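User: Show me sequence and structure for the first protein, then do the same for the second.

Assistant: Starting with the first protein.
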Amino acid sequence: MMPAFRRRHGIIAGLVAAGVGLSGCYYAQAVRGHLDVMRKREPIAGIVADETTPAALADRLRLVAEARRFSIEALGLPDNDSYRSYADLERDFVVWNVVAAPEFALEPKTWCYPFVGCLSYRGYFAEAAARNKAAALEADGFDVAIGGVAAYSTLGRFDDPILNTMLHWGDHELVAVMFHELAHQVVYVKGDTGFNESFATAVEEIGLERWLTARGEQAALADYRARRALTRRMMAAIAVARDELEALYARDLPAAEKRESKAGRLAALAAEIRALYAAEERAAPVWVDGGLNNARIASMTLYHGLLPAFRNVLADCDDDLPCFYSAARALAELDAGERAARLGR
């Protein structure tokens, strides 16, 4: 859906806004942006009932309402007022996220905030502010990935609305994102972005599978599984490249030599990803051409790095979601080292 991060994540903007008493330019823009989103909310039921509502919008919001019920009844996700309202922001993205990583390292830079702990990205409600931050980081020698984000989450602290920015997606993507964002309200670990995103992606996967199955959308289900399998192959290729890059960065070599070898490996990875998608007659992600760097690899790993481990946890629970949620909560209670070790096993 977007150049850098596919679709999410606006967590930080909304939760930073909860700390209204905090000072500083970053927090001030977060508060203003969050309040603007909250102010524009309207109940979905009222919009659908309004005869002046365009038919296309009413149909999409009916789908949202149906998926929201499904999320509660079939997936055990929180029964609250999240995604029961709609806000038209009159722009294409709600926030713009910046991810940065050192030139010769794959661990993303982190920023720490109230309520959510440290995160591997920085979110801005204004694109210009995000690009200014990206330029400053690049000037300091960081690899940077920047992209608009269509979804928005405050982890249940506020009643998050469906946004007009989310309606640019197809029906299945829209439903999947709702499941993903609601999953963050089930389990969330301060300071562990990779754990949080991989867990929510696992819930998204099983949720969309069950949604499509329940609706008898067999063709869509087959296409979704094919796309998911393609993503797995891409992430496997990224994992191999990541290991090779980490070995390169650890070597005692002149910076110029490292830089040249890095560029060659990233070019080879981009070609491999393009070939994977071409073999399936699908368009490769837009960031493959000209946007593949350490920050991009780090951002992709956040969503998929622990996904195989969570799939195994779900399999151990015989695909029972209450069991899966309980297991994830137990992992969340561990310290970071033990949690990583358990997931690694």
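Switching to the second protein now.
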Amino acid sequence: MKPKEIFLNGCNEIAKAFIEDGFKPLKKGQLLHKKSSDNDIVYEIYFQTSHRNWSGSVAVWPHCSIYSNELKKWETEHTEKEKPDGLIYHNTIGYISPYNCFKE
């Protein structure tokens, strides 16, 4: 199996655990997306691959992001941001875990 296939299979296996919580897999399972009940807050989990992957070792780097549509609207009206995104928080999973360090 090619590293990309292994990576995407891994992403889809991880995604299965989040579907019950309302996340929808996008981009072949590489992105998990969920909106709050009022459609303002967007939660995303993105799985990044490593450029060092090979068939014997495939790494997954999970990133977590939280966006607000209201904040994006406010940024559009009140700031000079070229591309407002409404980003509230973004980090890799290792930095929001008790380990507080980069993890694959």
